[in-house]
Amino acid sequence: MLLLAEFFTWIFAIAILVCWVLPSGTTALPIPRTPPKAKRRCAFKAYRLTLSTFLVIEVNDIYSEHPYIYVKRVPEANTILVTDTGCGGASNDRKVDITSLREFIETVGVEDNGGRPLNEGGSMRYVVVLTHCHYDHIRVEDFARDSPILQSSYSPSFVSHANLPEHSLCADLGIRTPLFKPTLVPHLDPIHSATGAPLGVRLLHTPGHTPDEIALWDEQEQMLYVGDTLYEWEPIIFPGAGNIRTWLASVDALIAFVMQSKSPQTALINSGHRTAVRPALEVLQTAKSFMMDVLLGKEGPRNRTRRRGEVYVEYAQDGGRYSLRCPERLVKEARDPV
Ligand SMILES: [Zn+2]
């Protein structure tokens, strides 16, 4: 049996032990943290190309087009220049949260932009340019309510409200044609903000792939944007309204245009698919060579299919850098002597 003094000694010892152990045990427990805000899943990803310009890719669209969209920030004009607007965020990812390009630009932080959205809170206004009217580049609904939508003035009937469902290929795909009232821009005109401030970009008519195809030239950054006129590693697809001879003339005009720039060898080219920040002259010249090889019979047809009431033929370089899919009629027309 413990004496009273021994009992108090034991109690004192246990109290010291508890005070000694408990604080260290407590600090070893993980500190409860507020769980990080759930990252929203987006139909788009953005990457910086230059000081002013970002590439936005619609990454997992149901059409497998993966269109390239270019977003140029021009704070001095309080304007964002958007070149093409993709196919509307229709994603294979059913859990995607952000399907609107405008919402992406205004609310989603971009790592290459210091974690901030490209146009945070929509503080800057927009000018939208469509490189051509195909369905995978023209979902402009979110912008058309308050922003100018620019297209080529080369063939107003081609982009008219009456013809857009057919020429955009929306009718063929059974999807809704976007409704918007474009401003048609003449060849070589500079692009301005909605309030008339210059954006440092010039619009060039480059018909061939389609009659309304355009290119943009950013003089300061020596960047050429050519839409679907050409790109690498995927078939360049001409619709029935395309014209290969006209395409060749446009590519020649682009080569001449780059040659007269202040630094032709460092100019870069950016397309509507797959090709971005590549050497402009080299890409233009090699794409033209491939097309000439097709017309001269040096490249043989690899495949024929029937679509939209026509026989489509496919040509492809060994290695696959350039390939072409178009109505066979276009190749025959381009080969025929004038
Ligand atoms: Zn396209």
TrEMBL record:
Matching entries from InterPro entries are given as: Metallo-B-lactamas, NDM-1-like, RibonucZ/Hydroxyglut_hydro
Q: Where does the secretion signal sit in this chain?
A: 1-28
Question: SMART domains recorded for this chain?
Answer: Lactamase_B
Q: Which domain of life is it from?
A: Eukaryota
- Keyword Signal (UniProt): yes
Q: Which Pfam families match?
A: Lactamase_B
Q: Which keywords accompany this UniProt record?
A: Signal
Q: Which residues form the Metallo-beta-lactamase domain?
A: 66-273
Spell out the SUPFAM superfamilies in the cross-references: Metallo-hydrolase/oxidoreductase (SSF56281)
Keyword Repeat carried by entry: no
CDD domains named among the record's database cross-references: metallo-hydrolase-like_MBL-fold
Coiled coil location: none
Fetch the PANTHER family from UniProt.
ACYL-COENZYME A THIOESTERASE MBLAC2, METALLO-BETA-LACTAMASE DOMAIN-CONTAINING
Full protein name: Metallo-beta-lactamase domain-containing protein
Native organism: Fibroporia radiculosa
